[in-house]
Amino acid sequence: xxxxxxxxxxxxxxxxxxxxxxxxxxxxxxxxxxxxxxxxxxxxxxxxxxxxxxxxxxxxxxxxxxxxxxxxxxxxxxxxxxxxxxxxxxxxxxxxxxxxxxxxxxxxxxxxxxxxxxxxxxxxxxxxxxxxxxxxxxxxxxxxxxxxxxxxxxxxxxxxxxxxxxxxxxxxxxxxxxxxxxxxxxxxxxxxxxxxxxxxxxxxxxxxxxxxxxxxxxxxxxxxxxxxxxxxxxxxxxxxxxxxxxxxxxx
Length: 251
Description:
Order of helices and strands: EHEHEEHEHEHHHE
């Protein structure tokens, strides 16, 4: 059993899901630059995956999380559960049950399945890091976001449970909770909201920027830097927490 100052295995293999999204790209680049043997999952964007693979000497794994999947190989020292979807902008009674099922599957069931696959190897080696990418909506509610909020709250519960169960094996599990980040997802949501409610995309982005005291969107690199720190040996006593990366929005 590992002590609090245990060193990570020398291979330092990391799996990052959602690797072709804005956050995923930043994380793949950050971990590869830091010397990790980096693997990333993607589904549709083969063009981005190929560029990212070539730029970072990482390994791309094409896996569709919307159906059954096998995770090979499973001996990862660090996992960043970054893949996520936000596909609903309706009141709760208007939510399509299929959208509910999809968001719960991608946002919380998939992190559970991946954690379940990698934890035995982490226990065997006496070291591991699981980092879940939540949201400020892991910590608070939002109207018109029932499936997303519910899935992110569930991810927080999974994070804390894994942290308690595996701490004695040198394994930590934490959650990063960003506010709006300048990303593909936020620009898509801004386009959809502008089309549905009127106004321009820039108007919606300005609303997002004005939500917090920093007066700006976060960056993917800021979230990636937090993940990289949580994966480090020196973060071994940070466990079971949900860390806002939000410019003070939830302060």
